[in-house]
């Protein structure tokens, strides 16, 4: 159940932008006024935290009814708040340091900021992504995020063929590169990886992570045609061995991450930075961008 008096402080703890606090607090009154909504919220939170901590579970939350208005784009945030006692208890059980737990869950506010940049108002564009945070599967460790995950078929085969004692379905750490967290410098990446080695060995000692993996447009080798050799992105690519190459274009990925909205017309994209110019000129020249898939031994 949502405690309205505590809600503003809770939202601020989750890095929700100040400009959204009043709207979220006001809309939350509907859960008490409309019993059906309160029951839906409780059931959604229950489904979210069921089997909390289990890797690879993708809970399907109950469908939302039509006619919710502004509450619809905010509903996943209320579910996250309702799940807070459960994820905090899980963190305590695992001995997760409070600062790491706080920064991990504060990714909720970062995603609301991304929604503002893309759509001009608050909400969550990809609510399913935040389920990882509130189920104990992903952690913010310095510049990078690390997700407790499993090797897919193609990456697992590549790792095994390289002589590593790992195979498809084995545990791995998936690396993610969040926006709004400063430059992706080699030192910051090295620090994050070092933290990850220590963190998971200490707090998940029964899980053995031999491999780190990343699936991102930042690993597209075509970026080498546009960026200087000493660029942070190319040095990030240097951390990984190629697992496999994608044949399916993913032009929306770089447009969405670099410019904030994957639906922007290519002809209207700005070219103020080196990365903006790289993404835009490649597309204007008729090229496509692809997801890169890489791995490294931990």
How would you describe the overall organization of this protein?
The chain is 46% helix and 11% strand. With 298 residues, the chain is of the alpha+beta class. A six-stranded mixed β-sheet has the order 1-2-3-4-6-5. Helix 2 (18-33) crosses helix 3 (35-49), helix 3 packs parallel to helix 4 (70-94) and helix 10 packs antiparallel against helix 11.
List keywords for this structure.
single chain; 298 residues; alpha+beta; six-stranded mixed beta sheet; 11 helices; 46% helix; 11% strand; globular
Lateral strand order in the biggest sheet? 1-2-3-4-6-5
Overall average pLDDT? 95
Radius of gyration: 20 Å
Percentage of residues in strands: 5-15%
- What are the segments in which pLDDT stays under 50 over at least 5 consecutive residues? none
| Helical proportion, percent range | 40-55%
- Straight-line N-to-C gap: 41 Å
State the order of secondary-structure elements, H for helix, E for strand: HHHHHHEEHEHEHEHHE
The shape is globular
Say how many strands there are. Answer: 6
Q: Tally the helices.
A: 11
Structural class: alpha+beta
Oligomer: single chain
Describe the secondary structure blueprint for this structure.
Blueprint: H1 7-13, H2 18-33, H3 35-49, H4 70-94, H5 98-105, H6 107-119, E1 138-141, E2 144-150, H7 153-161, E3 171-176, H8 186-203, E4 211-216, H9 232-237, E5 241-245, H10 252-259, H11 274-284, E6 292-297
Parallel strand pairs: 3-4
Antiparallel strand pairs: 1-2, 2-3, 4-6, 5-6
Helix pairs in contact: 1-2, 2-3, 3-4, 10-11
């Amino acid at each position: 159940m949502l405690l309205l008096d505590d809600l503003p402080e809770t939202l601020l703890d989750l890095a929700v932008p100040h400009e959204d606090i009043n709207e979220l607090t006001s809309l939350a009154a509907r859960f008490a006024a409309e019993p059906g909504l309160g029951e839906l919220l409780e059931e959604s939170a229950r489904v979210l935290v069921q089997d909390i901590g289990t890797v690879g579970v993708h809970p399907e939350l109950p469908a939302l009814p039509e006619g919710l208005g502004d509450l619809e784009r905010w509903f996943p945030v209320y579910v996250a708040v309702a799940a807070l006692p459960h994820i905090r208890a899980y963190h305590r059980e695992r001995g997760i340091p409070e600062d790491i737990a706080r920064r991990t869950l504060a990714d909720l506010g970062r995603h609301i900021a991304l929604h503002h940049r893309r759509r001009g108002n608050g909400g969550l564009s990809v609510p399913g992504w935040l389920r990882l945070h509130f189920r104990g599967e992903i952690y913010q460790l310095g510049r990078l995020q690390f997700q407790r995950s499993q090797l897919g078929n193609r990456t697992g085969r590549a790792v095994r063929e390289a002589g590593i004692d790992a195979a498809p379905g084995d545990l791995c750490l998936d690396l993610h590169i969040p926006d709004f967290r400063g430059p992706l410098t080699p030192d910051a990446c090295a620090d994050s990886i070092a933290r990850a080695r220590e963190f998971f060995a200490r707090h998940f000692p029964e899980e053995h992570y031999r491999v780190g993996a990343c699936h991102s447009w930042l690993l597209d080798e075509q970026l080498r045609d546009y960026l200087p050799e000493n660029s942070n992105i190319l040095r990030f690519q240097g951390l990984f061995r190629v697992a496999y190459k994608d044949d399916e274009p993913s032009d929306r990925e770089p447009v969405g991450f670099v410019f904030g909205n994957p639906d922007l017309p290519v002809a209207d994209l700005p070219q103020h930075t080196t990365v903006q110019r790289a993404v835009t000129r490649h597309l204007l020249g008729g090229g496509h961008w692809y997801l890169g898939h890489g791995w490294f031994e931990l």
